[in-house]
Write a structure and sequence with these properties.
Blueprint: H1 7-31, E1 41-43, E2 49-62, E3 65-76, E4 81-83, H2 85-90, H3 99-111, H4 114-125, H5 131-157, E5 173-184, E6 204-218, E7 224-226, E8 232-236, H6 239-253, E9 261-266, E10 283-286, E11 299-304
Parallel strand pairs: 5-9
Antiparallel strand pairs: 1-2, 2-3, 3-4, 5-6, 6-7, 6-8, 9-11, 10-11
Helix pairs in contact: 3-4, 3-5, 4-5, 5-6
Bound molecules: zinc ion.
Residues 44, 46, 48, 76, 78-79 line the site of zinc ion.
Length: 309
């Protein structure tokens, strides 16, 4: 049977299909141990007590395949709304795909087109999803990620989260590179937005981004050398105010206040006015670009903390 040269591949595919099918049944059996029942009444989340209304099944698509969940169902008479606490526990409230599958979908959808992602998931994982489904799932994951990032940044800026100081020895310099660039998007993404040439609709959306990196030493020619693996990023499509908050939070998260010197690099665009990017305690100082490590298209602006210069 294995003599044809391709038969092993067929066997591998068949084995994977059998294993994933068995995995789905096993997962279903594990999850059947609980249905989320929490007594005859449960809080609905809006200040009422919802009444238990029996068990309702729901099918969720997981990494190994569709799995049926048995969930205790509650109904709130005031809200006229039903819910299953088990859905919340498993991260599938209002969703038909599991968190694991949503993550795989988001990873594939972020790398290639949604149509190609559908092909990759089918070929590499044996999961069949339409391009439209991948699009919806990836965009929901992206929205959730963006909201989580914004909430984390707000907590850092409000000092509700206090990042640890940078590990010793603290690198000598922290660089903050800031720029914006147009990202080609589909027509539906530019609905109602004006293009640069006036009447024409925009064909791109601008992402504003900052890269933070550290420098601890100079090379033989006296040029700063980036510390390997020291880059981190803040970025958003949501305009300069949102960007300013994210950039400031990333600066604080990196322990920017602990560095001997912080240098911001930008091309002088009107929105790149350094106090406005939200990095506190900094003032802009013009810097001679000679000897700078910036790309040639950049004009240099150095930003240092008052009193350091
Ligand atoms: Zn209610």
């Amino acid at each position: 049977m294995l003599g044809s040269g391709q038969a092993l591949g067929v066997l591998e595919q068949a084995m994977r299909a059998a294993l994933t099918c068995a995995g789905a049944r096993l997962l279903e059996a594990v999850l059947a141990g609980q249905d989320g029942y929490c007594g005859p009444r449960a809080g609905c989340g809006h200040g009422h007590q919802a009444a238990y209304g029996g068990v309702r099944d729901k099918t969720v698509i997981t990494v190994p395949g569709p799995v049926t969940l048995h969930r205790a169902w509650y109904h709130c008479a005031e809200c006229r709304h039903g819910f299953a606490p088990r859905d919340q526990q498993l991260g599938v409230a209002g969703a038909t795909r599991s968190p694991g599958l949503a993550e795989m979908t988001a990873l594939a959808g972020a790398e290639v087109s949604f149509a190609r992602a559908a092909g990759l998931l089918a070929g590499l994982a044996g999961i069949t999803l339409s391009a439209r489904t991948i699009e919806r799932s990836a965009e929901a994951s992206g929205a959730a990620s963006r909201a989580a990032g914004a909430a984390g940044a707000a907590a850092i800026r409000a000092r509700e989260i206090v990042p640890l100081p940078p590990r010793e020895p603290v690198p000598d310099m922290l660089y903050v590179e800031v720029d914006g660039t147009g990202v080609p998007v589909r027509a539906s993404e530019t609905e109602g937005r004006q293009g640069n040439d006036g009447d024409a609709r925009a064909g791109t959306r601008e992402v504003k981004l900052a890269r933070l990196l550290t420098v601890s030493r100079l090379d033989d020619d006296g040029r700063p050398v980036m510390d390997t693996g020291s880059s981190s990023y803040a970025f958003t499509f949501d305009g300069k105010d949102a960007f300013a908050g994210l950039a400031e939070a990333e600066y604080l998260r990196r322990g920017g206040e602990h560095f001997r010197q912080v240098v911001a690099l930008g091309d002088g665009a009107a929105w790149i006015c350094y106090p406005d990017i939200g990095i506190a305690d900094l003032i802009p100082v013009p810097l001679l670009s000679r000897g700078s490590t910036m790309p040639a298209w950049c004009k240099a602006v150095s930003v240092m903390r008052p009193g350091i210069i």
